Amino acid sequence: MAFIGKRLKAAYTPINRDTAYSVEDAVKHIKAGAKAKFDETIEIAMNLGVDPKHADQMVRGVVALPHGTGKKVRVAVFAKGDKAKDAQEAGADLVGAEDLAEKINGGEMGFDRVIATPDMMGVVGKLGKVLGPRGLMPNPKLGTVTPDVKTAIKNAKAGEVQFRVEKSGIVHAGIGKASFSEQQIAENVKAFIDAIVKAKPSGAKGTYVKKISLSSTMGPGVKVNLGASAGA
User: Fold this and answer.
1) What are phi and psi of 224, to 5 degrees?
2) Entry pTM
């Protein structure tokens, strides 16, 4: 812990904690502070002026980042017949129907995204208590309940990011890796911010985007200028 403390202290040295930086400058600081021996994830956190307990203030959606997330996404697909074959050909990691439901109920959780054809939702619906709390329940609005399983799998594998505001009004997501170029990270950051701004719910009042910050897995956090979020 002493080593981590010293490393973080050194990483924070060039950062003014009271300053909100442009996306480009924030990314420079984040990359410079990512000194771990593994490829750290670059994370974004946005504090929103919403109360998700109210249905008209829920912020939820999906965004395709221009450079992906750098993370290998494991996909489970509920499908039968030709659709199951399509899913296997598209690179799904797990494919099945009732048999897949049994595996998941038995503790199988080796996946990051669940996709289902519409006819499979009767089976998937019974897994609500398992998938729901993990944010894995397929949803038509997110493109994860669809007859076009090939496209859904392709989008998931390409680094499509789902987002959902937490009870505290915060949305956070991994939007790249420290090994990405500054330009790639900056473009991903801007794409994510744009998606959140466009997802502004009808019930949001007052300031919508209150604070934006970037960090790496083991590095310091850096505030981002709210001017980066047009329409905030």
Assistant:
1) -110, 135
2) 0.81
